[in-house]
Design brief:
By secondary structure, the chain is an alpha+beta fold. It has helices spanning about 1-20, 40-45, 90-100, 155-165, and strands at about 20-30, 30-40, 50-55, 60-70, 75-80, 105-115, 115-125, 135-140, 145-150, 165-169.
Length: about 170
């Protein structure tokens, strides 16, 4: 029994560094810096894509959208509105669930602290056509929201969310 425990401990000691190794990203886009971590095995395979676009909400409020694309991993969008804007987390939760359901997913959601702010995260799974994903959103300040989607397992998503930080330069 002690031999099995010893072997198990040795295997865990060899595997643990692989689990916790992560690459820090700090991407500047527009007037923002977006920082986050991805596991080394994922980070070594992606190339960050950045785009800046202008958009308008249904009620006519214009915004600038700063997008960071992480091919095969997901995306992050920072929306900067030209006036005070409030993200309703309950409505966002319902929107995330509705969009997931429309694509054949079952989604569960929870409020969660992201970047030291109250946010929401949805886990969407079970679609026969698409892969499982986590979607998140939070309000950065009175005119900025942050949203994103990750096609990672929870063990990679959680460190990403814990390390995510957006700041205006």
């Amino acid at each position: 029994m002690k031999a099995i425990s010893l072997v198990l401990c040795m295997v865990l000691l060899m595997v643990m560094p692989c689990i916790v190794d992560a690459k820090d990203y700090s991407e500047k886009i527009g007037p923002y810096e977006v920082s986050f971590k991805l596991p080394d095995e994922i980070a070594s395979t992606i190339e960050v894509n950045k785009t800046i676009t202008r958009g308008e909400t249904l009620d006519g409020t214009p915004y600038n959208m700063y997008s960071i694309g992480l091919p095969l991993v997901g995306w992050i969008e920072v929306r900067d509105f030209n006036r005070t804007w409030e993200l309703d987390l309950d409505k966002m939760t319902e929107t995330m669930k509705g969009l997931g359901k429309g694509n054949g997913y079952t989604c569960s959601s929870a409020h969660r602290i992201i970047d030291d702010r109250e946010g929401v995260i949805s886990y969407c799974f079970g679609s026969e056509r698409y892969t499982t994903y986590y979607e998140f959103a939070y309000q950065q300040d009175n005119h900025t929201t942050v949203e994103g989607r990750l096609y990672l397992d929870w063990e990679a998503t959680l460190p990403f969310l814990k390390s995510l930080h957006v700041r205006e330069l």
